[in-house]
Amino acid sequence: MVRTLLNLAVFLATAAIALLLASLLVPGFHVHPGGFIVAILIFAIVQALVEWLVRSIFHRSAPTVAGIAGLISTFLALWVASLFSGVSFDGIGGWILATVVVWLITAILGWVAAKFITPRFDKGQPARG
Question: Distance from first CA to last CA of the chain, Å, rounded?
């Protein structure tokens, strides 16, 4: 239970950081303060569902498809978030660049979390370090 909650918190935190950094780095991509929390939730839910679906369909070639699944899920999640929250794009270039930046940031932060944060909760024992 603790591990599941930790994974959820890490997933939401990486989404929040990625959206915030992308809004600062990508011209044409905007996250409006009033819709930031909604954008995080919608983005995270849609990304998780699309990525799960793509990996389920292509389960035998998962390593090959992992990067593509991540980019596709990020692209679609940003689009859906723009429909329902305070995320907006000034054009297709901003949308594409934001997709790559958000995907890259979430991938790096997810790797860091998997390497250094979540192993501490395996089998209910703190990691020795």
Answer: 24
